[in-house]
Specification:
This protein has two domains: about 10-25 and about 150-185 and about 235-305; about 30-145 and about 195-225, no CATH class. The termini are close together. A six-stranded parallel beta sheet has the order 5-4-1-6-7-8. A two-stranded antiparallel ribbon has the order 2-3. The longest helix has 26 residues, at about 120-145. Helix 2 runs antiparallel to helix 3, helix 3 (about 65-75) packs across helix 6 and helix 6 packs parallel to helix 8 (about 210-220). With about 325 residues, it is of the alpha/beta class. The radius of gyration is 21 Å and the shape is globular. It contains 13 helices and eight strands.
């Protein structure tokens, strides 16, 4: 880690690999396992629309097990075990097959039967998936025990930290001041967690005549609003861009396609020719550096890149 002086700063970009290196169970596969255990999920072999109701006080009541079943079985067609895999899968859901299965399930007396109920069906699917990736996701990450986590790296207390993680390791374990940390996707303390795909607008994602518009509505609702997230943390970026960034340290950051707008925004605001990016041993050991370097170059990074940081771990 390079010590800085005057107005120069180090920027750390933190991803889930950072939490994993501290032996925390924070992969998508861990969240999936949590869903299975807490909702009594069992494989159905087909997709079914969960029940959604409005309570007496206007609160939304979801079928928790049905929502978990829909989410897991739908996503299992595409996703791996990383969060980048999940977000990519959210943008590649097979709506034609989904609505074909659901149409066959509906009988004449089913409340979602018919073209005029397509929007209601889509609302139930959207509400169910939203419940999983908001309420249940927050509940899960709050259950991850960090009490016995020990420091593993020597981090710069005067650096700035852009983290994609929901946990509070930087503040609680490493003592980094909260005004130097940006939880771009929310945190266990802030709530309002963000997750979603990065597919562009205008894609045709369903060819079903009846459900096409409804499928598009679901797809759009699952898109990550990176512009809103950046605006929400305007004070952090304003402070960061008032300094001279000389080194960027990527620690366990996946640099998935859904998160590339953040890097593009960052690189557009600084002179990247004067910046060096460093990858940690975590990325190097997994052979991910080549892919990540290509993605960073594609969104405007023109500076030097170091592919390993042997001096960073204690």
């Amino acid at each position: 880690m390079k010590k800085q002086s005057n107005n120069q700063v180090n920027l750390y970009i933190i991803g889930n690999g950072f939490d994993l290196s501290h032996n925390l169970p924070t992969k998508y596969s861990d969240f999936r396992e949590y869903l299975v255990k807490t909702t009594h999920y069992f494989p159905r072999g087909y997709l079914s629309v969960p029940d959604v109701a409005i309570g007496h006080h206007g609160d939304v009541i979801v079928d928790e097990m049905g929502s978990a079943c829909l989410f897991i079985e739908w996503l299992d067609w595409n996703s791996g075990e990383t969060w980048s895999d999940l977000e990519d899968a959210l943008g590649e859901l097979d709506y034609d097959s989904v609505f074909s299965d659901i149409s066959q399930e509906l009988d004449d007396d089913h409340p979602f039967n018919g073209i005029y109920d397509a929007e209601d069906l889509a609302d139930s699917i959207r509400t169910s998936v939203s419940w999983v990736i908001t309420d249940r996701l927050l509940e899960w990450i709050q259950s991850v025990d960090t009490q016995n986590v020990k420091k593993k790296y020597q981090l710069d207390p005067f650096g700035f930290y852009l983290t994609f993680n929901y946990t509070m390791l930087l503040e609680k374990i490493y003592g980094i001041s909260s005004n130097r940390v940006c939880h771009i996707h929310g945190s266990i303390e802030e709530g309002d967690l963000i997750i979603g795909h990065g597919c562009p607008y205008g894609q045709e994602i369903c060819h079903n005549f009846i459900y096409g518009d409804s499928a598009q509505a679901i797809h759009d609702s699952l898109r990550k609003n990176t512009k809103k997230a950046i605006e929400r943390h305007g004070a952090f970026f304003g402070d960061l861009f008032s300094r001279k960034i000389t080194d960027i340290y990527c620690l366990g950051c996946g640099i998935g396609s859904a998160d590339l707008p953040y890097f593009q925004f960052l690189f557009s605001a600084i002179n990247t020719k004067m910046v060096r990016i460093h990858f940690s041993e975590f990325e190097e050991k997994r052979g991910e550096c080549v892919k990540k370097i290509a993605r960073l170059r594609a969104v405007g990074f023109k500076g030097a890149i170091s592919r390993c940081l042997p001096e960073l771990p204690r």
